[in-house]
Write a structure and sequence with these properties.
single chain; 170 residues; alpha/beta; six-stranded mixed beta sheet; globular
């Protein structure tokens, strides 16, 4: 099976680990621990690509949110096929930082696929795009609203980037 490296990028506490644990184990961590360095997860994503007939093994690199832009000078980002750039709907600064991370990712890994993931939408009721910084409202990249707590759109977020990787590789 074809394996692809996916980065989880975002500030501390936006829910990167919760998203990947929900995907891989269908559970939510009950004890908060900030990721130190990197944690790796593997997940077989079935039903990707045109017609949903392919499978792809995602090797998800859950990265420490303290790295900021320096992550793109670190070995952790090398060889990545795509990324999910995660922000917390309740913390405006994390949403603004998503655009900065997107610029860094695009510069370090040109033509690689990424999506913006707005997490913790269960805390605001109906998600409203007006809460987003202008740069995210106007993006051409996919914008996915998730709740790791409720398992809302978690698999869709990872599937979207997997589909984009398959399309890019033909």
């Amino acid at each position: 099976m074809n394996a692809k490296k996916i980065l989880l990028l975002g500030e501390i506490g936006v829910g990167k680990t919760s998203l990947v644990r929900r995907l891989v184990h269908d559970e939510l961590p009950t004890d908060y621990r900030a990721t130190m360095g990197v944690d790796l997860y593997r997940y077989e994503m079935a039903g990707v690509g045109e017609g949903g007939v392919k499978s792809l093994e995602l090797v998800v690199w859950d990265l420490d949110g303290n790295y900021g832009l320096s992550i793109f000078r670190h070995v952790y980002s090398k060889g990545a096929s795509g990324a999910l750039i995660v922000g917390d709907i309740m913390r405006q600064s994390t949403l603004e930082h998503m655009a900065v991370l997107a610029d860094g990712f695009s510069e370090a890994l040109p033509s690689r696929q990424f999506s913006f993931v707005i997490n913790k939408v269960d805390l605001v009721g109906t998600p409203d795009g007006s809460l987003l910084p202008e740069r995210l409202r106007e993006t051409r990249h996919p914008l996915i609203w998730t709740s790791a707590l409720r398992a809302q759109n978690v698999q869709s977020a990872f599937k979207q980037v997997a589909d984009a990787i398959i399309r890019r590789e033909g």
